[in-house]
Amino acid sequence: VPVDLSDYNPIDLCGTGGDGKDTFNISTLASFVTAANGVKVTKHGNYGVSSSCGSSNVMEALGIRFTADKDYLEKALDQVGICVLHAPLFHPAMKQVAPIRKALGVKTFFNMLGPMVNPAFPKNQMVGVFNLELARMYGYLYQKTDKNFSIVHALDGYDEVSLTGDTKVISRQSERVLRPEDFKVSRLAAKDIAGGESVASAAKIFVDILSGKGTPAQNHVVCANAALAIDTVKGVGLETAFEGAMDSLKNGTALQKLTQLQAL
Question: 157 is in which domain, residue-wise?
């Protein structure tokens, strides 16, 4: 069920999941920070399969409306700058396999497929993947499209810029390795970016970070991912994008995006 929102020149920040790391909802948080920096976001998400709390679990807990209604999604992009696309509403066939995926609880072909099938066909895509082979495969496939993309794989296994080590980034123009120092921040430990044990605790972490109550580690990892997304669309450079991302957490504009979407 496609819903063409390409006129907004949006980006989707999406991980394949399946990295077995159980981080908090970094790419979803980074999506709100990205929107707070003037980049439209069509956030494609689903319930957690290999993690305890996927993007859709936390959005649902925070009262975000799931709909495939194009008018509503356009209103969200116009008024807030971000809309949430809950995958099962757009991929009816996925519903059939959801119970099987949940029962398996491991990464499957559908993890790999997820980022490829955003129903809004965003012109810009930031995808986190769980291994280097998949990063290369995505790079190969995206080169054949007109998409502007950044494919991300942290070399210690995360499907996002984890700041726990170096991160491989593949784009149309280049293949490079990003280090925490590129964002002028220090390296993190795995425990610094661990997620909540339940949907309720994940939602609390989510709101705390947007409310400026996150730890420096949480703020840095969210803003590093947002910075890469902002730079992918705007080409302003990582340092400028990172500063803008951090500012939006401090001054409440990222939180405002969440409250506006909740009220819509």
Answer: 6-263
